[in-house]
User: Fold this.
Amino acid sequence: MVVLDLANNLFSGEIPYCWIKWQSLRVLRLDGNRVSGKIPISMGTLTKFQSLHLHNNRLHGEIPLSLKSCTNLVAINFGENELNGHIPGWMGHGLPNLIILILRSNKFGGNIPDHLCALTSLQILDLSNNHLFGSIPRFVMKGQFLEYGNTLNLVRHVDLSRNNLSGEIPQEVVNLQALQTLNLSQNHLTGKIPKLIGAMILIETLDLSQNQLTGSIPESISGMTFLSHLNLSFNNLTGIIPTSTQLQSFNESCYAGNHLCGPPLKGCRGSGKETDVKNRAKGIGKGREINWFYVSMPLGFVTGFWCVLGPLVFNRRWRTELWWKVYDLVGKF
Assistant:
């Protein structure tokens, strides 16, 4: 069997440990059930694994080291469980083909491992709503500084919101030229917004709300011509809001809880202390999440892939081109 899809049922109990007998399995979907217990160590024997979806269950414990052997994994979604421990650093070097990594809404703690920078094919990274702390990695490995643009040059969606991250937003983040969604809201980030943030010209969603950012809004943000959602509310920003068609079209609640002046704020109040502004900002303060309807499109595609186009797995060039087309489609949304 190549594909096993048991998603969205009412299955309960623990995941069986007999996976050593399923050596041909490439796609496993157990998401949307009531499965509990730990992720079986025996899943590490499935070296042909390409897509593993265990999200929206009741799993606990740590991610087993044995999965390091599944070097062909392209997509991992363990979101909406009760997994704990640290995010394994070996994922960076052990899973070189990973395109999607979703660990949102669990109980992971510790720092975000620097080694995730080695995932050069990564396009979706969602670590939101965990207990992560420390700073956003500057990706220093083996004593050498690695440019974001030379490593994570394909990443399109990054969501690190609702954690306990601190420190400054790395200036190097502006080198993520393909980035479309960046959500760092509801952390404890300090310092200034990167001066050249406008270099990320493909950004559609930018949420830095509910942090402790200071300084002014960089003028370069005016160059984000694709920006359709912006939330800078409830920081310690000061100064005049830069002028652009997008920036003045957003509701004033997007800037509430700061000390800003200029349109769309009325006059130079801009403190966000006004009752009407704060009320309108409540919903926005929760942060903008990735539209998982569109993310689910490539995930669902993987399942159908093995039913219809399985032979492509034996041709690496065809497989790479196929993934590019799928994620180019996601990028249009």
The CA atoms of residues 114 and 141 lie 7 Å apart. The chain has a mean pLDDT of 82. The longest strand covers residues 131-135. The helical segments are 90-94, 148-151, 245-249, 275-281, 292-308, 316-331.
